[in-house]
Amino acid sequence: MGNIADLKEQVLVEEFFGKKFKIRFVEEDSGKAALTHYMMLHGHKEGEVYKERAVSFYRDYLENKDGEGITLHEAYEAIQYSLFDHKKSIPFPEVEIPKFKFIDLFAGIGGFRLAFQSLGGKCVFTSEWDEQAKKTYYANFGEIPFGDITKPETKNFIPDGFDVLCAGFPCQAFSIAGKRGGFEDTRGTLFYDVAEIIKRKKPKAFFLENVKGLVNHDRGRTLSTILNVLRNDLGYYVPDPKVINAKDFGVPQNRERIFIVGFRSDLGIKQFSYPEPENIPVAFEDVKEKHTVSVKYYLSTQYLKTLQEHRKRHESKGNGFGYEIIPDEGIANAVVCGGMGRERNLVYDDRLEDFTPITHIKGEVNRLGIRKMTPREWARLQGFPDEFVIPVADASAYKQFGNSVAVPAIRATANEIIKRILKNA
Q1: 325: DSSP letter
Q2: I want to staple 100 with a disulfide (CB 3.0 to 4.6 A). Which of 163, 195, 212, 257 is the partner?
Q3: What is the mean pLDDT of the chain?
């Protein structure tokens, strides 16, 4: 084969997600995930978990690309050539000398990671099943998350010795009729997988996030079971969970989420206080686009008429459903997936001068200046910095930010967690 220097290859997201290479790993993501995890953790002991899988995947990748056989050693050398170029192009590079280490489960686009990394943490494992979210995660952090966390082969990649487990797991009911509501009763739910990882890896702390509705989900039995497992079955100190609102931490969004934190019992931590509201005045104008946005974000006259009629029907029934326009001095409603998340967060913006549609719409572009928020405005409502890359189409971007966490609220809580585990190190 040619000189090994010819194999220098920056592993680009469009290659891994765009082209379909005819190799045996093309439909299975552990190779891509292991490779990018290994590249980001090279030189750290946690990286050794990924080395064998990363090198074998890269060898097959290069053989398919160049049509020549190469050895595992040559593939390993090729990875070394790629390390610098791979890391230098990432908007949010990892911490080289970390204060602590964490894993990012149900990672989405990396809201937890942004928060913990900004406090000096190094992420040593990520998992996320959504392919579009993986693209965004890769573009910003240089890692492709592993996939289905319920699979043993995925769990086997989780390294030992990390300090904090982070998870924004989906809310599911448990089959606990006539049972004590313990660990075994959570089987078949995603919380079971989180609890299983905590049980196996015994991190110093965990930070779980969920929708506010978890408080009353299944008449409170779901939350009660979760706390029973964490406190009694797993033996962690778990203070009472708290519902935290994003608007209290510097972003103009009324978004309430339940936070659950816990500490391993041998650390001797017996007190924990969730962060108090920062009382920073915020309004939508703080995140509003500074320049005129594309006409595609402005509602058509027909769409606006449909929304007005829909709200009028509900008002006649005494319901409060319908679209809402957020004034510049107002606070946005929670950004969520689906059309309602956008329809309840419309804004006025009279800066548009060219009303020529660039998408297929019914009617004309409205002249009232009513538009949807842009994906970048949603990103700012969630506390993502403008350096955060949005490499996906708008539809995926809205879904991703709607599913994400409010980074400032996560960071404020994470800071309280880290102060305690470092003090007890």
Answers
A1: E
A2: 163
A3: 86
Q: Based on the domain organization, do 22 and 109 belong to the same domain?
A: no
- What contacts 148, CB < 8 A, 6 or more positions away? 127, 129, 154
Domain boundary among 38, 61, 88: 88
Residue 312 CA to residue 240 CA, distance in Å, equals: 42
| Nearest alpha carbon to residue 161 among 113, 203, 98 | 203
**Amino acid making up residue 136:** T
The answer to whether 379 and 356 are in contact (CB under 8 A) is no
Predicted confidence (pLDDT) per residue in 140-182, tens digit: 999 999 998 999 999 999 999 999 999 998 776 666 544 566 6
How many angstroms separate the CA atoms of 263 and 363, rounded?
Answer: 57
pLDDT tier for residue 75 given thresholds of 50, 70 and 90: confident
Domain of residue 350 covers: 290-373
Sign of the four-CA dihedral 393, 398, 403, 406? positive
- Residue 402 falls inside a structural domain: no
pLDDT over 90 (residue 383): yes
Number of domains in the chain: 3
Backbone dihedral angles phi then psi of residue 153, each to the nearest 5 degrees: -65, -25
DSSP for 106-137, written as a single string: S-TTTHHHHHHHHTTEEEEEEB---HHHHHHH
Longest dimension (CA), the chain: 76
- Determine which helix (DSSP H) or strand (DSSP E) holds 206, and give its type and residue range: strand 205-211
Instruction: Examine residue 336 and state whether it is found in any structural domain, yes or no.
Output: yes
At 119 the three-state DSSP class reads coil
pLDDT of the residue at 81: 66
- Phi and psi dihedrals of 67, rounded to 5? 70, 20
Catalytic residue among 123, 166, 171, 337: 171
Q: For residue 284, is it within any domain? A: no
Q: Is 164:203 a contact under the CB 8 Å cutoff?
A: yes
Rounded distance, CA 32 to CA 16, Å? 8
Cα radius of gyration (the chain):
23
Instruction: Tell me the residue length of the chain.
Output: 425
Q: Identify the residue whose tokens are 């009911």.
A: 173
Same domain, 333 and 271: no
Residues 68 and 110 in one domain: no
CB 275 within 8 A of CB 415: yes
pTM: 0.89
Domain match, 105 and 229 both: yes
| Mean pLDDT across 245-267 | 96
Instruction: Examine the residue annotation and report whether 337 is marked as an active-site residue of this protein.
Output: no
φ, ψ of residue 207 to 5 degrees: the values are -140, 110
Q: Does any domain span residue 392?
A: no
Res 21: pLDDT? 36
